[in-house]
Amino acid sequence: MPSPATCPRADLDAQIAAQRAAIAHCEAALWEGGCNEPLLASYQAAWRRLETLIQARGEADRRHGFVLVIPVADSPQHLQTCLASLLDLCRAYGYGGQQEGRWRKVSVLLADDSADANVLAQNRAIARAFAAQGLRIHYFGPAEQAALLDRLAGLDLAPIVGVHARPAFAHKGQAMMRNIAYLKLAAMQAEEAQALGGPLLFYTLDADQSFQVKVATAAGEANVAAVSFLHHLDEIFRRDEVRVLTGKVVGDPPVSPAVMAGNFLEDVIGFLTEMAHTEPGRPYPRHIASTRGSGEAAYHDMANLFGFKAAGDTYRFRCPLAGAPDNAACFADFARRLNSFFHGEHPTRITYYRNDGRSPPPPGGEGPGERAVSTSPARTVYTGNYVFRPEALDQFIPYAPLRLRMSGPTMGRLLKADLGAGFVSANLPMLHRRTLEATGQSEFRPGVVEAADRVDLSGEFDRQFHGDVMLFAMERLTALGYPARALTPAEVTQTLDATRAEMRQRYLEKQQALLARLAHLEALLDDPGHWWNQRAEHAGAVAHFHAFLTNIRRNFGADAPCQRRLDAPGHWEDWRARQAAAILGLPVHREVWAQALAALSPLPLRGRGREVGALDSPPPPGEGPGVREPR
């Protein structure tokens, strides 16, 4: 009896459904009991097999296309690493496949905020190099940014993008740079939708991040490309209600040393106490890396303000030296890393990825959300890792010219008020590395001034404190109905004053606790009975400890410039006036922003209760893929 006829499309659909189920089971095995790294290659191959089956259909691929927005400021090494990780992600998981050697569903808008002419040239060269390897890259340099804003000269965009000296037009800060890049997204979205062959998602990240996750392993830790970010995001955004999604970061913390010094001193005390009870020549105890504290902001001195339980225990230093190093070697290695703290690294409280244990999907079909990463309501935006639909371009980063830290959490409170269930969080963190391994320093970090062994955090400390004031004032203002409800100047200033007074008291309490730890630590370090003070070979490491403690006292002591600035006459009054003006002006700023989008966008954008749209000038003839110089 002859076999029944089969439909090739139906057969492919069945294979695709089976492959999706295989991926889910492979993922479960990959994360069973932790990260089983030997299974990673098979897991990645399973995704590539899925892509082969999808392409075999011979139909238009209407999955989402991604435009990745990467601001960069004088950090070419970070940029190189970031783009390399994106290319590795494409090769490992194959999302969207390739056409004529170029990844079909991925595009990059490289927003260069560098000031150094040599670095600008380096960044262009890096963009060309990755374009030659298959990435579609649009280079958006200072001259192109200024030209774009010149097209909008009739609109007062200064409260959103700032005012910047020409011709340099550099170091505008991440928030203002992103807002300018979002205007460019509005102008280029029609062309990108056509080029990427599907609905768009805009994905903004920082140049010091990678498409990897940091995991705890039996050997210590590893950075692995174990998450298929683009596949998961495509599945999540098939749910119509999702407009903005934020991920988080693993690795180095996303906050300032201004709010990490207290718990780090506690860990340094723990380290020296442990060392004092050992012998320098004995092996340093190895412990399996733990995910303790990951996801609970254990690095933050005021984690309780964000709904997390304050970490009560100290965290051990995980010595990364190869082999079986002795205590003296790890003592010296820790000492060398101490200065990296002032550049945003936390040597003891590292955040690790935890897989959320998704279940395999039911058999059959490939409907939306069938095996998507779960989401939860969000209240904080990680500006270095969030994704949004083109319709959400109306949500610029608010109050950007204030240059405050905590701009993402502040924006998140507004998104929560504006979007409700449309603003979600997902377990899709990126690897964050503040510093370069070779130097232990960041390539470029505004607000941190370093000369020889002296570090001055005054600028960053000021931005952190007033960013905290803005954030927690915003929680109170949104509870009053802001931004939908117009507030009176008195409501805003009174809220700012009350929040500032409470935050100043918290900072003073943390400072007193920190100074007590500092005195304890200095006594531990200088005790002549401890082995590191008894032999000249340890003098270099001890000097690193002393330099670190001197800088801690310089920045957090009773007479530190950071502290004096906060209480200087007129300082708060100036900040309050600027913050209040920004808060009260937001409704007008949003109207101006909508006009800017309308002037730039060739497609209708669903704004706040209306449609806006206008035609952009067509691209010049002959402009092909690769590195583009946007107009």
What percentage of the residues does DSSP assign to strands (E)?
A: 5-15%
**Helix fraction?**
40-55%
Oligomer category:
single chain
Poorly predicted segments: 1-5, 359-371, 607-631
Enumerate the strands of the largest sheet in spatial order, edge to edge or round the barrel.
5-4-1-6-13-10-14-12
Mean pLDDT: 86
Major beta sheet summary: 8 strands, mixed
What Rg, in angstroms, do the CA atoms define?
Answer: 26 Å
Specify the structural class.
Answer: alpha/beta
CA(first)-CA(last) distance = 67 Å
Secondary structure: number of strands:
19
Number of helical segments with 4 or more residues: 16
Task: Label the overall shape.
Answer: globular
Entry summary:
This protein is of the alpha/beta class. The protein is built from 16 helices and 19 strands. The strands form six sheets. Strands 5-4-1-6-13-10-14-12 form an eight-stranded mixed β-sheet, with helices on both faces. A three-stranded mixed β-sheet has the order 7-15-11.
